[in-house]
Design goal:
Blueprint lengths: L3 H12 L4 H5 L22 E9 L2 E11 L2 E2 H4 L8 H11 L5 H14 L6 H7 L6 H14 L9 H31 L14 H9 L7 H13 L8 H10 L5 H13 L6 H16 L5 H12 L23 H17 L2 H22 L7 H11 L7 H23 L19
Antiparallel strand pairs: 1-2, 2-3
Helix pairs in contact: 4-10, 4-18, 5-8, 7-8, 7-12, 8-9, 8-18, 9-10, 10-18, 11-12, 11-18, 12-18, 13-17, 14-16, 15-16, 15-17
The structure holds acetyl coenzyme *A and oxaloacetate ion.
């Protein structure tokens, strides 16, 4: 009797493609050039991500910079005493200019108007069906929302833009209600469904919906708002945005493209790294204690790199980036937030542990792999969320909620500017055979 396992072993023996062939056939593996830079696959006016400079044909590492529609992120998010940076950045990403105060309030009321879920959706789709993973549930919900849209397959870009806005407006309640429903269904927790308040920002509404007493402080809302704004876009090349553009290029519906992007973002090498990093750090703190020496921290990192412990992937989550080298500007902003929050909440030792561990990992990856890595956006974000009492399961869904602005902006931009179906090539390297 043959078993599938045997077929699999045979497959490995006969069908595997040696790693060296990628170089031999000049494959742009992972859509990267030989120097690690990304293959140019599009043009965008939405955002720019800078991590190196090209001096002729030489790549030179540089401090990281992120621009939304030409505005540097630090400058854009300078104003700290407001709670609607996310809405402001979203407007900028989608329409290309910074809204006036009046335009911003119109935009907020448009989002509020579309936030309500279709009639019966909460009861049928959310309270009656939970999933073991909230990202998967979000994909299901978005695909179900397709059924409620009479013009779901519209090809016209303006219609798609409005469809996308209506979808984005619903993400905060989808995420929070699914969490509540799951906690109730799987863990027997009390169920509370707080409606979105029309006069509050997205960040305020998320905190309200997540908390049984609906209470939050202005500072908490400002930090969450900053987190959402920071995650709103990252150029056209990041995996989830690209997936959504590739799917959109076939003319498929926006619901499908968003579901695809959410699936991509869930991956632990992409947005899912925020959960993984938080879990990894918790396990390390338990294992080494908060007072671990530099040598102990470095050994703990080396063990992870050797695939010993944690998830045995060999990855140090929250480190490294396809573009950033010396620094990820978002991680720097988050590090400042994490520090301030840690002081306020008496978690300085944990914060110091994060900083000391980061130093060891950077040194280790330089020694072992010869690469310059920085902490990326996913390193400190979980720590910040934890101090805001946001449950771990929601870290990646919140990323999706924020990034949906960027997904939509790039989806529409590609359709308007190029409209070309994305279709690269692969080379057949098997042998030719005849059926006997
Ligand atoms: C929102 C975001 O998506 S930010 C990124 C979040 N992801 C993570 O934090 C997961 C950990 N990091 C990584 O896996 C990677 O750094 C990525 C996926 C972000 C970028 O990957 P790449 O562009 O392939 O990185 P790069 O070309 O610099 O990698 C060179 C080598 O270093 C390894 N490397 C890079 N980062 C790490 C890391 N954090 N831990 C262990 N090894 C790493 C790569 O696996 C590769 O090894 P190999 O040559 O043996 O195959
Ligand atoms: O740009 C990338 O490859 C990943 C990233 O940081 C993001 O999507 O925010």
């Amino acid at each position: 009797m043959f078993t599938l396992h045997q077929y699999y072993l045979r497959y490995l023996e006969e069908q595997s493609i040696p790693k060296e062939w990628y170089q031999m056939y000049h494959v742009k593996n992972g859509l990267r050039n030989e120097d690690g830079t990304g293959v140019l696959v599009g043009l965008t006016k939405v955002a720019d991500v800078v991590g190196y400079e090209m001096k002729g044909t030489m790549k030179k590492d540089a401090q990281g910079k992120l621009y939304y529609r030409g505005y540097e992120i630090q400058e854009l998010l300078e104003k700290k005493d407001v709670c609607n940076q996310y809405e402001r950045c979203g407007f900028l990403l989608l329409f290309g200019f910074l809204p006036s105060q009046e335009e911003l309030s119109v935009w907020q009321s448009v989002l509020a108007e579309h936030a309500a879920l279709p009639e019966g959706f909460l009861e049928k789709q959310i309270l009656r069906g939970s999933s073991k993973n909230l990202m998967n549930k979000l994909m299901q919900d978005i695909l179900t929302l397709y059924e409620y849209d009479d013009n779901a397959d519209a090809l016209d870009n303006e219609t798609r833009l409005y469809q996308g806005i209506a979808l984005i407006a619903k993400l905060p309640s989808l995420i929070c209600y699914n969490y509540a429903s799951k906690q109730h269904a799987l863990h027997g927790h009390s169920l509370y469904i707080h409606p979105m308040a029309k006069d509050r920002s997205t960040a305020e509404n998320i905190l309200r919906m997540l908390r049984s007493d609906r209470k939050y402080t202005k500072e908490e809302a400002q930090i969450l708002d900053l987190m959402l704004a920071l995650h709103s876009d990252h150029g056209g090349g990041n995996n989830s945005t690209f997936v959504n553009v590739v799917m959109g290029s076939t003319g498929t519906d926006l619901y499908a493209a968003f579901a695809g992007a959410i699936g991509a973002l869930k991956g632990p090498k992409h947005g899912g790294a925020n959960c993984k990093a938080a879990q990894m750090m918790k396990e390390l703190m338990r294992k080494t204690g908060l007072d671990a020496s530099e040598a102990e921290l470095k050994e703990a990192a080396a063990q992870l790199l050797r695939k010993e412990g944690f998830d045995q992937s060999g990855l140090l989550y929250g480190f490294g980036h396809a573009i950033y080298t010396y620094s990820d500007p978002r991680a720097e902003l988050l590090q400042d937030q994490a520090k301030a929050l840690a002081i306020a909440k008496g978690k300085q030792k944990e914060f110091a542990y994060y900083e000391r561990f980061a130093k060891c990992v950077k040194a280790l990856l330089k020694e072992e792999k010869g690469i310059t890595v920085c902490t990326n956006v996913d390193y400190y974000s979980g720590f910040v969320y934890e101090l805001l009492q946001i449950p771990e399961e929601l870290y990646t869904p919140l990323f999706a909620c924020a990034r949906s602005m960027g997904w939509l902006a790039h989806n529409i931009e590609h359709q308007l500017a190029s409209g070309k179906i994305v279709r690269p090539a692969t080379r057949y390297v098997g042998t030719l055979k005849h059926v006997k």
